[in-house]
């Protein structure tokens, strides 16, 4: 229950955040909307309601072999406005643009964590440079420039990194 409540708080914070300003630096073709789609039928999020719901769905869950209610079924939906029409980013943006958008979302999550805890988060980004051209690599580095971040990548993907990025070759 705490996961659902904390995630709702984050999305409320996100609505008030400066994402629209930040989006312009991402090189995307239009405004972006991020929505939480809750697929669990909980009108009121309490431990008692959730346990009751789990009990009601136990027989069905045993038949299908998985838990069919809960926050793991929820989705985060990204859409972009192009020509006054909101469309899912997964169909409109390139793989690199979608990756930058997701990483910008992760960076916003880090800003939220910092705001509520007072502690700077540490990021470990694994193989994020694949599918990114030099321009998007620069955008990625700018997104995380004020953070402690370790990025792992293949040697052939390091060409687009800014010269001030510390590189360690493990080969």
Structural commentary:
With 171 residues, the chain is α+β, with helices and mostly antiparallel strands. The chain has a domain at 2-38 and 74-120. Helices cover 43% and strands 16% of the residues. The protein contains seven helices and five strands; from the N terminus they run H-H-E-H-H-E-E-H-H-E-H-E. The chain has helices spanning 2-16, 19-23, 47-56, 58-64, 89-92, 95-117, 134-143, and strands spanning 32-37, 75-82, 85-88, 122-126, 148-152. The strands form two sheets. The chain has a three-stranded antiparallel beta sheet. Helix 6 (95-117) packs parallel to helix 7 (134-143). The longest helix is centred in the middle third of the chain and has 23 residues, at 95-117. The protein starts with a helix and ends in a 19-residue tail after the last strand. The model has no long low-confidence stretch (mean pLDDT 83).
Category from helices, strands and their pairing: alpha+beta
Instruction: Kindly state the percentage of residues in helix.
Output: 40-55%
Give the strand content. 15-25%
Estimated radius of gyration: 19 Å
- H/E element sequence: HHEHHEEHHEHE
- Main sheet properties: 3 strands, antiparallel
Low-confidence stretches: none
Shape: globular
Mean pLDDT across all amino acids: 83
> In DSSP terms, counting alpha (H) and pi (I) runs of 4 or more, how many helices?
7
Spatial arrangement of strands, main beta sheet: 1-2-3
**What is the end-to-end distance?**
45 Å
What's the number of extended β-strand segments? 5
Task: List the SSEs and their pairings.
Elements: H1 2-16, H2 19-23, E1 32-37, H3 47-56, H4 58-64, E2 75-82, E3 85-88, H5 89-92, H6 95-117, E4 122-126, H7 134-143, E5 148-152
Parallel strand pairs: 4-5
Antiparallel strand pairs: 1-2, 2-3
Helix pairs in contact: 6-7
